């Protein structure tokens, strides 16, 4: 086994195992920390694929921003430590779904003739410049629409969390 | 990069929408609580401007032909302009409806108007996208704000439930859709419809992977049009959401979903691609209309019944797509325009009555025929049109759909459609029966007053339903032009 394969298996294992921990751990804070490791694993995958810019943003935004927000949200909500995380499992449907989806995906992956672009032993360079040019050239419209979309999401969330009309100021709004 | 600057000229309708949104958002801060009506008026004016600009654009397009914009991210053609007209009308009607709705008045009404206009922006991007990335972005623009609109009634647990349900189902199907998109990119090496088509024609992919990918991407779009098996969300969401939002969801995002579904299937999976998708659509269409109609039979709430009826309507409209012929497509476009008018009309009646009797239960509709003759008569006309009986526009729409199916010699399919229409007559007539033949046990409001705006709007909506049922030629030609260019 070559070194790069070993590295890939390590990254992939980290991602998958921590992802499994996120859904199986009983304590919600432990789940959140497992999610942190998953994000690191995904960043590692990006590095492995030579997408340095994506890897950096993954760490900055997901680990630096989203994870911190998730932890804050957990801390600020009531009854953090004893949240009963349970599922009423229905074994038969679960087995059917868990059996059929991987089967279909596996068939797709094996049968498909993927459109692969091989680098041919090139040395990986920084991708930031290309991304920047694409964002302001070919992908200008999606880039702008994305900012509009974020604005709308912002307005929408403010609408939802705002105090109700006619309610007195002060005091928690959920009471 | 120079081209991007030149293309802005074709983006004027979307820019108008965005400017309307921005102005409304700012104006909402200026006007005092309880006096937000001017915000809605601004929105209506913006929609008027939009319609004018679309008119100009379609006149300009007659000379140049369809235009691709921004490195083939989207395209302006008669098809997208036709849909933008529908969206502009829907948004305008919704704004007028919202202005007099008691439900909305108790909330922060300014933002409601603003968000409706914003969803319209998303819909108009969606119907002209020719690139999977743009589709995803405009999809989210519609979805995220729809969740907010559905859960708009603060303090009403049913509205919150509706918002959360919509969000969970929506996020899940969007996840499946974007997974499918990534696989399609992996198979064909492109996100642009024509390049995908070329790659698929060249035999890229293989049958099973391409079919699975198609199904995954379709699931997101079928969710938006509330077709089976992705229809579960719609009754709960429609019932819990404010009635104005329900009226909007049942027409606007649904039409947008059809626009993108048509364009995606006909361009990316156009002729000579390995997947025989019209068989799949045929099965889905039969499933959708049957499930919608038979479940509607048992409903005791008019809003919920109209939700199931709109599922069934989506089934009829899918018939036109199952037909591999342009006639089917022009029938879809015609039907969508008619559907917009009659469904908005039916919801307008529900809303007008709800303002007074505070209920949408069928048992509270007893005796409405005497208490509010105009609303009851209007409801009858809209329901007859939804069933597809002459002399209404709904009849012409359904006739064109069934004719397109018959021309392709799919007799069994057409028969199922007709039988379903008969079933639908039963539950539509239950409303009529309650309104006219049953007597309310509580004679308390001897007369139900409808706001003047609603009364005028009802008459304005009845006219095209009757008129298009008798003189449908100009409208039909418009829909043919939208398909053939």
Poorly predicted segments of chain B: none
Query: What overall form of chain B do the CA principal axes indicate?
Result: globular
Overall residue-averaged pLDDT value of chain A: 83
Order of helices and strands of chain A: HHHHHH
Which band does the percent of strand residues of chain B land in?
A: under 5%
Structural class category of chain A: mainly alpha
- How many strands in all of chain A? 0
Percentage of helical residues of chain B?
A: over 70%
Assembly annotation = heterodimer
- The assigned structural class of chain B equals mainly alpha
The residue ranges of chain A in which pLDDT falls below 50 over 5 or more consecutive positions are: 168-175
Mean pLDDT of chain B: 90
Radius of gyration of chain B: 22 Å
Estimate the global geometry of chain A from the Cα principal axes. Answer: globular
Helix proportion range of chain A? 55-70%
Q: Describe the biggest sheet of chain A?
A: none
- Write out the strand line-up for the largest beta sheet of chain B, numbering strands in chain order: 1-2
Written description of the protein model:
- The complex is a heterodimer of chains A (175) and B (485).
- Chain A contains six helices and no strands.
- Chain A has 175 residues and is an all-alpha fold.
- Chain A has helices at residues 3-24, 28-48, 52-76, 91-111, 128-136, 140-161.
- Chain B has helices at 2-7, 12-30, 37-64, 78-99, 102-105, 109-128, 132-150, 157-188, 193-201, 207-224, 233-240, 243-268, 277-296, 302-322, 326-357, 368-371, 373-387, 393-407, 411-436, 452-470, 473-484, and strands at 67-69, 74-76.
- In chain B, helix 3 packs parallel to helix 6, helix 6 packs parallel to helix 12 and helix 12 (243-268) packs parallel to helix 14 (302-322).
- Chain B is mainly α and 485 residues long.
- Chain B starts with a helix and ends with a helix.
- The radius of gyration of chain B is 22 Å and the shape is globular.
- Chain B has a two-stranded antiparallel sheet.
- The chains are: A mainly alpha (175), B mainly alpha (485).
- At the A-B interface, helix 4 and helix 6 of A face helix 6, helix 7, helix 8 and helix 10 of B.
